[in-house]
């Protein structure tokens, strides 16, 4: 019995040592999170994972089992199920670790507190959030007609606020 517990403990610590710190990058309307992530990745050799890019890649992959479903979700502008998003992100994070990337910047995820909690449960507990904001006066004119609105900003803020409350309780 003691030997089994030692093996489980050793497996836990081995998995823990292989974790890649993950930073979820969120931002208010007008912040170009993709560009900011690209700049950080160049400066620090981080891995940049855009959930939208990962989904497009999988939608185009005819060998991927859920390609049509992902393609339909993208065309209808509907979020893919949380489990699917998390499994795809986990694969990308692991690919980056194998390539020697020490950190992963994840853009476009999470969209809700449920997604953060599920990611913590399925992938890893310790993660970070980088929240970028842009004053409306600084918002580039060309992005004013973009696809985001105030409710998106409020939802992002609520998800991040909920995450910080969860972290403070522990």
TrEMBL record:
GO MF, one annotated term: ATP binding
Record keywords, A-Z: Kinase, Nucleotide-binding, Transferase
Domain of life: Eukaryota
Biological process according to GO: nucleobase-containing compound metabolic process
Protein name: Adenylate kinase
Organism: Hyaloscypha bicolor E
